[in-house]
Amino acid sequence: MATAAGAVTSHFSPPSFHGLTTTTTAASFSFLRSSSPSSFPLLFSTILPSKIRRDSSQIKASSSATYTESQDLKVNSIPTKPIEGQKTGTSGLRKKVKVFMQENYLANWIQALFNSLPPEDYKNALLVLGGDGRYFNKEAAQLIIKIAAGNGVGKILVGKEGILSTPAVSAIIRKRKANGGFIMSASHNPGGPEYDWGIKFNYSSGQPAPESITDMIYGNTLSISEIQLADIPDVDLSSVGVSKYGNFSVEIVDPVSDYLNLMEEVFDFSLIKNLVSRSDFRLTFDAMHAVTGAYAKPIFVDKLGASPDSICNGVPLEDFGHGHPDPNLTYAKDLVNIMYSDNGPDFGAASDGDGDRNMILGRQFFVTPSDSVAIIAANAQESIPYFKSGPKGLARSMPTSGALDRVAEKLNLPFFEVPTGWKFFGNLMDAGTLSICGEESFGTGSDHIREKDGIWAVLAWLSIIAYRNKNKKPGEKLVSVSDIVKEHWATYGRNYFSRYDYEECEAEGANEMISYLRDLISKSKQGDKYGDYTLQLADDFKYTDPVDGSVSTKQGVRFVFTDGSRIIFRLSGTGSAGATVRIYIEQFEPDVSKHDLDAQVALKPLIDLALSISKLKDFTGREKPTVIT
């Protein structure tokens, strides 16, 4: 049927939103408001002329804007000026929502991205757009669509209601052979008008853009002078279908189907269903009112037969229900309370804001992310069809414990230690040398996509538990999560591990602390004594990519001792304000009789040493960490 300004929209009968009934869908996405320019005057006052925003008499077109016609698509060249502070971190550009709402702030970065890409990567090309459903995503999606059209993109695929998990974006890019995709998310950080928003770009392999591109984007934000904006109406994100504007088209897609199909290719769903449907097995999945709420019901309930009440906080909300969607023992307290109750479920898991992180729990038992990836790797070949020929290689981020190293050694597999940031795994995957990898920051994944994947990790654990119990008859004691972990420790030894996070510290003090530590390691030498520990090496981690030869420096200050113990200090690049200081403490214990200690007890001497070495209290004023993992 005909619509505004030469647009032709063909809507086909949309399937029900996967995992949500019609009634639930309306409730789940009631927060996704219609665009209201009056609510965002700074964002739209320059970038959207009044003839585009017909419902706003207060918005005026820039008198110096120029207009060009291209294949029936009018493009407006909007003058702009550089804005400071648009350098991306390890996972894109993240700031407070109010920063992104400033005049041209988001538009400048999106245009700078197009200015940084070779024309063949976007001209008449296919791109993907989605996000975690947080506050401001819907308004941002409309702006990104218009700028994409203005720069000559041929087609953009958008998740229904703007919803796509980060793993789903990577999966769709790869399946649809798209040239790249935008992800609107601040990941595990809080959402809402006073909180965080973020944007990043993934390349054609589905992996985050490399530093060579993000550095170029930043450079272009410092010299940008105009924004190319197509004169098209806002797109209806609520209905699956295709809208065409000249040579540009927008397809609204179901956010779940492509990702679900991939999961069914990777895992044996019938094996998992046999476990999940048992009367003597119970699970709880906490979506934390984030994006995996849209995926939980179709996967865990509809496909695998879990009870509907096994999904906790399953309705995506733009402010995550006033919560902090970070799946750890501090912020996923609803799940922790359930799993540590007297009659808790057998298996518990949570995922974060954009669905790429995970936390795994057994009944009254926490699985550290470092142990989790090691256990998945050790059991993958027998439990997961995708790995039936065995993993190609294993890798972890530098701060992650050495548990995975021991699996790689036993299985005689290539092993890689990389800086924090999933993009470093992507090159190894594309080179065919890496299958399974993980980060201590609750990120686990494989080469089925080029992002970490929360639901993948949950399904991997369910696969392992299902395989271990496939011959168990009703009434027989099931092999539990804790049984699997303790058996792994008995085989490989236990890497006691903990992370202390000091969130939103004053940046000046945090940076001074890291400078002090760098000066300290420059004067350190092998054999130096630190209390009862003898120094093996002290350095600032440096990584040379074995695939492309790129070099990453200053990736974390390390103190490694002769007994294998490690203390690592880093500033996180994933927050939107201040600085997050992270301290990582690890100690290997081969003695099975010492495997049942509480990690904080086992690591106390190292923790005390770390606080003493760093003089953290002096530099930051912090008495206690915000989060202990």
TrEMBL record:
<keyword id="KW-0150">Chloroplast</keyword>
<dbReference type="Pfam" id="PF02880">
    <property type="entry name" value="PGM_PMM_III"/>
</dbReference>
<dbReference type="GO" id="GO:0009507">
    <property type="term" value="C:chloroplast"/>
</dbReference>
<dbReference type="InterPro" id="IPR045244">
    <property type="entry name" value="PGM"/>
</dbReference>
<dbReference type="InterPro" id="IPR005846">
    <property type="entry name" value="A-D-PHexomutase_a/b/a-III"/>
</dbReference>
<dbReference type="InterPro" id="IPR005844">
    <property type="entry name" value="A-D-PHexomutase_a/b/a-I"/>
</dbReference>
<keyword id="KW-0413">Isomerase</keyword>
<dbReference type="InterPro" id="IPR005845">
    <property type="entry name" value="A-D-PHexomutase_a/b/a-II"/>
</dbReference>
<dbReference type="InterPro" id="IPR016055">
    <property type="entry name" value="A-D-PHexomutase_a/b/a-I/II/III"/>
</dbReference>
<keyword id="KW-0460">Magnesium</keyword>
<keyword id="KW-0313">Glucose metabolism</keyword>
<keyword id="KW-0934">Plastid</keyword>
<keyword id="KW-0597">Phosphoprotein</keyword>
<dbReference type="GO" id="GO:0000287">
    <property type="term" value="F:magnesium ion binding"/>
</dbReference>
<feature type="domain" description="Alpha-D-phosphohexomutase alpha/beta/alpha">
    <location>
        <begin position="86"/>
        <end position="225"/>
    </location>
</feature>
<dbReference type="Pfam" id="PF02878">
    <property type="entry name" value="PGM_PMM_I"/>
</dbReference>
<feature type="domain" description="Alpha-D-phosphohexomutase alpha/beta/alpha">
    <location>
        <begin position="370"/>
        <end position="492"/>
    </location>
</feature>
<protein>
    <recommendedName>
        <fullName>phosphoglucomutase (alpha-D-glucose-1,6-bisphosphate-dependent)</fullName>
        <ecNumber>5.4.2.2</ecNumber>
    </recommendedName>
</protein>
<dbReference type="Pfam" id="PF02879">
    <property type="entry name" value="PGM_PMM_II"/>
</dbReference>
<keyword id="KW-0119">Carbohydrate metabolism</keyword>
<comment type="similarity">
    <text>Belongs to the phosphohexose mutase family.</text>
</comment>
<dbReference type="GO" id="GO:0005829">
    <property type="term" value="C:cytosol"/>
</dbReference>
<keyword id="KW-0479">Metal-binding</keyword>
<dbReference type="GO" id="GO:0004614">
    <property type="term" value="F:phosphoglucomutase activity"/>
</dbReference>
<feature type="domain" description="Alpha-D-phosphohexomutase alpha/beta/alpha">
    <location>
        <begin position="258"/>
        <end position="361"/>
    </location>
</feature>
<dbReference type="InterPro" id="IPR005841">
    <property type="entry name" value="Alpha-D-phosphohexomutase_SF"/>
</dbReference>
<dbReference type="InterPro" id="IPR036900">
    <property type="entry name" value="A-D-PHexomutase_C_sf"/>
</dbReference>
<dbReference type="InterPro" id="IPR016066">
    <property type="entry name" value="A-D-PHexomutase_CS"/>
</dbReference>
<dbReference type="GO" id="GO:0006006">
    <property type="term" value="P:glucose metabolic process"/>
</dbReference>
<dbReference type="Pfam" id="PF24947">
    <property type="entry name" value="PGM1_C_vert_fung"/>
</dbReference>
<comment type="subunit">
    <text>Monomer.</text>
</comment>
<keyword id="KW-0809">Transit peptide</keyword>
